[in-house]
Predict the 3D structure of the following.
Amino acid sequence: MLLFERILFSYLLVVNTGALLIMWWDKRKARKGAYRIPEKTLFIWALVGGSAGAYAGMHIFRHKTRHTKFRVGFPLILVVHFLIVARLLWHIPLP
């Protein structure tokens, strides 16, 4: 594995784990009626590369599943990230 691929994999692992944990933390806060993590923060984590973790967290913890912007936004961001990573790693042309 090339250095670039290792760095990319490590980055995506960290940011997706972080996004998953933030979804868990927000769900936990929601159940306790505590101060919540802003939706903007959840989307920022998804946009910087954590879309898979955020999408997984949404389904694992059944959190934000009724909100259309999350049901549509997270998968859409995930597809865009997949296309970008495919382009970077396998030189697949973008549509």
Remarks:
- The chain has a mean pLDDT of 91.
- Residues 3-90 form one domain.
- The helical segments are 3-32, 39-60, 68-90.
